[in-house]
Specification:
Strand order of the largest sheet: 1-2-3-4-6-9
CATH architecture: Alpha-Beta Complex
Number of strands: 9
Shape: globular
CATH superfamily: 2-enoyl-CoA Hydratase, Chain A, domain 1
Radius of gyration: 17 Å
Order of helices and strands: EEHEHEEHEEHHEHEHHHH
Distance between the termini: 41 Å
Helix content: 40-55%
Number of domains: 1
CATH class: Alpha Beta
């Protein structure tokens, strides 16, 4: 396992840590691949019952390292975001891991951080968390599930407010709209997530998995979601190759506001 992602057993719980704090845990291709492997470990090991996803350091993640991930997505499509494992951490381009994920977030939690939260089953936030879905400010669209999961899980207006404005929002707003289930003091988020995961791990493994699978059938496997995924897969490569996407990346690298032309 690469050190981009750490794994540690805590009884029947697997602790999965994003470990690139010097880059605010930005996801490059190696991090994406390592996260997929960790989810495979959770899914395939019969002794593991629950996963806890967190970020090492002060921040969960600043999002994608677009300079290296962007070209891969433009060439291979959005499946590049899911690694090469059996289970997709975003539960979009392949099956989701069949065991619960409790996610702990703090500090900066941008773009894919929100999408991983939407794909998780329970989310615990530190009071200092800063969420932002800023893809449209970079000339692209979210492609880890936010465009269809956020409206379905959080309500249309709540979702559109952060999807279409790219505005930052904090822990209390995230709690209000249902993105997170609990807000705790700074530094306590991982411990609280571990405690909840241990409580889940004490329950019947067969009952937990069956409950999770049944709930997902109702909320994640409908024809509308499949149509949304297919539409996203068809549209994203063209958007990633657009002039606006190039301007978005260049403005990000130059730390300036982008000037978009709609082409």
């Amino acid at each position: 396992m690469t050190d981009r992602i750490t794994t540690e057993r805590d009884g029947h719980v697997l602790l999965i840590g994003v470990n690139r704090p010097e880059k605010r845990n930005a996801f490059d291709l190696e991090t994406i691949a390592a996260l997929a492997k960790a989810y495979d470990q959770l899914g395939e090991d019969p002794e593991l019952r629950v996963g806890v996803l967190f970020g090492h350091g002060d921040h969960f993640s600043a999002g994608l390292d677009l300079a290296v991930v962007g070209p891969a997505v433009a060439e291979h499509g959005p499946v590049a975001l899911s690694g090469e494992g059996k289970y997709d951490p975003f539960g979009v381009w392949r099956d989701p891991v069949p065991k619960p994920i409790v996610m702990a977030v703090s500090g900066i939690a941008f773009t894919l951080s929100i999408e991983l939260a939407l794909a998780s089953d329970i989310v615990i936030a530190a009071e200092d968390v800063r969420f932002r879905q800023l893809e449209i400010g970079r000339g692209i669209v979210p492609f880890g599930g936010a465009t269809f999961r956020a409206p379905a899980q959080l309500g249309w207006g709540n979702a559109m407010r952060f999807l279409l404005t790219a505005e930052e929002f904090g822990a209390q707003e995230a709690y209000r709209i249902g993105l997170v289930q609990e807000v705790v003091r700074k530094g306590e988020h991982v411990g609280r997530a571990r405690a909840i995961a241990q409580l889940i791990a004490k329950q019947s493994p067969l009952g937990v998995r069956a409950t999770l699978a049944n709930a997902r059938i109702a909320t994640r496997k409908g024809k509308r979601m499949r149509a949304a995924i297919e539409h996203l897969a068809a549209q994203l490569p063209k958007i990633m190759k657009s002039e606006d996407a190039q301007e978005g990346l260049q403005s990000f690298l130059e730390r300036r506001d982008a000037v978009f032309k709609g082409r």
